[in-house]
Design a protein that fits this description.
- The chain is an alpha+beta fold.
- The chain has 2 domains: about 140 residues, 3-Layer(aba) Sandwich (Rossmann fold), CATH 3.40.50.10790; about 100 residues, Elongation Factor Tu (Ef-tu), domain 3 (Beta Barrel).
- It is about 20% helix and about 30% strand.
- It has 5 helices and 15 strands.
- The strands form 2 sheets. Strands 8, 9, 10, 11, 12, 13, 14 and 15 form an 8-stranded antiparallel sheet that branches. Strands 2-1-3-5-4-6-7 form a 7-stranded mixed sheet.
- Strand 4 and strand 5 form a beta hairpin.
- The longest helix is centred in the middle third of the chain and has 14 residues.
- It is elongated, with a radius of gyration of 21 Å.
Length: about 260
Amino acid sequence: MAIITFLSDFGESDHYVAAIKARILSVNSSIQIIDISHQIEPCDIAHGAYVLKSVFRDFPKGTVHLVAINSAGQQGDKYIAIKLEGHYFIGTDNGLFGLISDTMAEGQVDINVNNLATTFPAKEVFAAAAAKLASGTHISDIGKPLDQFKKMLGRHLKANKSLIAGHVIRVDHYGNLITNIDKPTFDILSAQKTYNITFSRENSRRINESVNSVEAGDIFIIFNERKLLEIGINQGNASELLGLGYDSPVMINFE
């Protein structure tokens, strides 16, 4: 069965999400549409990229991912489709797709072939293109060839034998602080060494196995399912209580 995932900053209180689904189903009523989230902060490309990067590989290859975040974009931004890691992505060329993978695209096209001027591109342009891709149309047949698409630079990890310097890249729904410090890098640099993790005014020499390995109200530090270092408070909001948020520094010193 053809699958289209749908990620947007539309929220749930208006008709926008339903209108786009209706347009997709009017092209092919057998398509399965799966919502990733519609609670992305308005026009927050970093938030959208984090969520999409976290989940798109869990879907079967060939899945079409319709992304409507800051879909109006800036003047001159194109509406595009990209084939990347065996998946298809449709949205505005606003830099988001450059944040989800370092792999070279297998194909990329401008899908606004009629230069349609619209205030609702997700419905008027994205939906039909997504439905065609999900129905088996080749990507080269839904748009004009595109030389490149925008790529933004995310926060990069700094690491050497004595230090890992990272940042918070996402504060999740629970107030947990997800960083860009990855477990493979930590495992290599921490071998046969002691370490001290520092953030805000706190420090720790221990990484926990799970959230519930600490008491309620205590700080936990884990590597989550994406193998990224995560800091939280069991049954509490770490962002509020520690005064940390997006881009806050987190350091690991090795001895």
